[in-house]
Amino acid sequence: SAFAGCSSLTSITIPSSVTSIERGAFSGCNNLIQTENGIQYVDKWVIDCDTSVQTISLRSNAVGIGDYAFYNCSSLMSITIPNSVTSIGEYAFRYCSSLTSITIPNSVTSIGNSVFYGCSSLTSIEIPNSVTSIGNSVFYGCSSLTSITIPNSVTSIGDYAFYNCRKLTSITIPNSVTSIGSCAFDGCSSLTSITIPNSVTSIKEETFGNCGSLTSITIPNSVTSIGEFAFSGCSGLTSITIPRNVTSIEQYVFQGCRMLTIFCEATARPSGWDKSRWNFCYRTTGGEYIYCPVVWGYTGN
Q1: Rounded to an integer, what distance in angstroms lies between the CA atom of residue 110 and that of residue 120?
Q2: 3-to-15, 38, 282 alpha-carbon distances in Å
Q3: Can you say whether residue 96 is alpha, beta or left, with left for phi > 0 and alpha for psi between -120 and 50 degrees?
């Protein structure tokens, strides 16, 4: 609310060093805000939108899209973002439930958290190689998204980034990615295979939880730790190999993986693995604990 209520303010120049504008920063600045085709601008930034707008072409000199700018614009079906835009703020397109596709220009270097959260009609999106990170919950609940290409410029994928993207069938994680957040692919129930690059050292909590169609996954030698529930609910997974470099495994990692056999390169359980429930599978109605079978000293033969 930096300038909220400054009703006499008629002009402002926002420097290029500004990378985000929070919601309500210019609330009540009626003499400052310019409205064009249902879009509200302050200087060269988009700050708000009429929720009934269906098609948008932003000004050719726009440089940024503020936080919540198109929040809950449920009628929005298409938008053209010019190459002048470098930043897309948090929650910018949250709940734009009619938006089916969007192209992010190469000028964009920053995509805030939850930008496309709940865009349930979004089927495709292009992420340019200018983007270096995919924030938390960016595609959370994009239940119609079928495919996405992550460019080699991306180094991190945030928590819940693709949570509940139920139609996502495949995804390639480039070697540039060093960090994948908790629950990043949780609920991607159509995902059939995934390769984790050698640049990743940790698989966090519930990262691939409830990926029921997942039949194949490769854990690289770079991984040293696996968080709890990391593969829980991956009911289609029949085998997985755990490299000897994995020194830490938390509990319930494979809960609900009833067809799974675990192949371990280690000859015995390392001290850093949970003592009793790292390979827990399920509990019977009679209260018996069932565990995934384990093959120790696996060499690939």
Answers
A1: 22
A2: 15, 22, 56
A3: beta
Instruction: Say how far apart CA 88 and CA 62 lie, in whole Å.
Output: 11
Q: How far apart are CA 254 and CA 234, in angstroms?
A: 8
Residue with tokens 């009628």: 75
Is residue 245 exposed (0-12), middle (13-18) or buried (19+ Cβ within 10 Å)? middle
3-state helix, strand, coil in the chain (%, to 5): 0, 25, 75
What is the DSSP secondary-structure string of 66-88? -TTTTTT-TT--EEE--TT--EE
Amino acid at 146: T
Cβ neighbours of residue 115 under 8 Å, at least 6 residues apart? 88, 89, 90, 91, 92, 93, 94, 135, 138
Residue 23's nearest CA partner among 63, 60, 72 is 72
Is residue 290 a contact partner of residue 283, using CB atoms and an 8 Å limit? yes
Report the distance separating Cα 128 and Cα 122, nearest Å.
17
The answer to whether the CB of 154 falls within 8 A of the CB of 131 is yes
Helix (H, G, I), strand (E, B) or coil at 264: strand
- 127 contacts 101 by C-beta, under 8 angstroms: no
Q: How confident is the model at residue 1 (pLDDT cuts 50, 70, 90)?
A: low
The least confident of 43-47, 92-96, 151-155, 228-232 is 43-47
